Amino acid sequence: MSLSGATILQVIPHLAAGGAERTTIEVTEALTAAGAKSLVASAGGRLEAELSRAGGELIRIANLPTKNPIAIRANAGLLARVAKERNVTLIHARSRAPAWSALWAARRTKLPFVTTYHGVYNAKGSLKRLYNSVMARGDKVIANSDFTAAHILREHPWAQGRIITIHRGVDPARFAPGAVGNDRKAALAAGWALPASNVSASNDVTILLPARLTGWKGHREAIAAASLLRQDHPEGWRMVFVGDHQGRESYLQELHQLISANDLGNRIHIVGHCADMPAAFALAGIVIAPSNEPEAFGRVAAEAGAMGLPAIGSSIGAQGEIIVDGQTGYITPPSDPPSLAAAMARLLAMGPEGRKTMGESARNRVLERFTTSALQKATLSVYEGLTGRS
C-alpha cells in the first residue's frame, strides 16, 4: 500500500516565514503528489497561499500558539474533533505548545503521533524540561540534524530508539545558479535601492545575512565585523540584512544605531522581508550566518550552497554539518567579529573565480545530502511505517 487516500494532520503555531513552516509546505507537496490529503492546523500567516498551492488545507485555530494550559486542553479537543470528522490517519506536531494539544488529541483518537524537533530548546528547571519533553513523546521523533538528535538524547534519553534524523532540504531546482532571471534580480535590487545590474558584474560584492531580526542571529556581530573588514577592505563590498523584524522594533532601532555609530550607513542595508529568496541569493557573492546560539540545522547555509555560494557559519550547532570549513565556506567561532571579518576578507581576496569554485563544491554537497526530495521521501516513509502503509 501507499499513502494514497490517507489524511495527515500537521500542527504548527503559525504559517509565517521560517524553517518549520517551510518544511510543512514541502511535506504537503509530497503528500499531495502521493495522493494523500494534507491538513494543517495553524493560526495561519504569510504562507497560507503557498499551502493552498501545494494542495494543503488550513484548519484555522486562532489560539493554537498559546501556552495557556486551559487553552491547550481546549485545543486538544478541537484537534480530536478534526481528526474524527476528517478521518485523519496520523498527527504530526512541529512546536511545543500545540504539540501538547496534538499529543492528547492523538491519544484520545488512538492515532500515530509524530513530532519534529525543529530547534534546540533551553531547559532551565524541571518544569521547562517537562514542557519541552512533549517533542520527544512522538511514536517517531524527527530530528532535523545530527546535532539536534544528540541534543534530544541528552535531554530525553528515554526517547532512544524512536529518534530519526531527517535533515531539512533545499529545492535544487528553485535554488540554483542561473535559475533566477535578470528581471527578478533587477526588481529585487531596485526594491533594495541597490544597483540594478548583477552584483557579480559590478564593483561591489554583496555580503548577505538572511535571517529574521533577532539578537541570536548575529546582526550585532556582523556590524562589528564589517567595521573591522573596512579597515583592510575599504571598498568593493556591501552588506545586506534580509529578514522580518517580527515586531522587534527596539532591536531594529538598535541595529540602525549601531550602523550609524560605526559610520556604516553606506555599507550596511536593512531591507526587511524578502518573498523571493532565490533572487536575494542571486544578488549575493558571499553569505554569512553568524549565529551566536546553536542553529538546529542551518537552512541559510544549505540554500546558499544550492545557489553555488560560499557561506560563513558559526561553529556551534549544525552548520558544520553543511559547511565544510575551507572547502565550501568557513566556520568561525560564535560572537567573534574578528574571526568573521577575517573569513569575509579571505573570500573577498579570492575574487569571483575563487568564490565560484568554492560555491560549486558547496552545491555538490547540498545535492548529495540536503535536498527537499530527500526530506520528503524520508518523512513519508515515517508516515508509512507508522500507519502500516509501507
What can you see in these coordinates?
The structure is a single chain. The chain has 390 residues and is of the alpha/beta class. The chain has 2 domains: 7-169 and 371-387, 3-Layer(aba) Sandwich (Rossmann fold), CATH 3.40.50; 182-369, 3-Layer(aba) Sandwich (Rossmann fold). It is built from 14 helices and 13 strands. The protein has helices at residues 19-33, 48-53, 69-85, 96-109, 126-132, 146-155, 182-191, 219-232, 249-261, 277-282, 299-306, 319-322, 337-369, 372-387; strands at 7-11, 37-42, 57-60, 90-93, 113-117, 140-143, 163-165, 205-210, 237-242, 268-272, 286-289, 311-314, 329-332. The protein has a 7-stranded parallel beta sheet, sandwiched between helices. It has a 6-stranded parallel beta sheet with strand order 10-9-8-11-12-13, sandwiched between helices. The relative contact order is 0.12.
In short:
This protein has 390 residues and is an alpha/beta fold. It folds into two domains: 180 residues, Glycogen Phosphorylase B (Rossmann fold, 3-Layer(aba) Sandwich); 188 residues, Glycogen Phosphorylase B (Rossmann fold).
Task: List the defining traits of the structure above.
single chain, 390 residues, alpha/beta, Rossmann fold, 2 domains, 7-stranded parallel β-sheet, 6-stranded parallel β-sheet, 44% helix
Major sheet: order of its strands? 3-2-1-4-5-6-7
Average pLDDT figure: 93
Oligomer: single chain
* Number of separate strands: 13
Task: Report the structural category.
Answer: alpha/beta
The CATH class label of the largest domain is: Alpha Beta
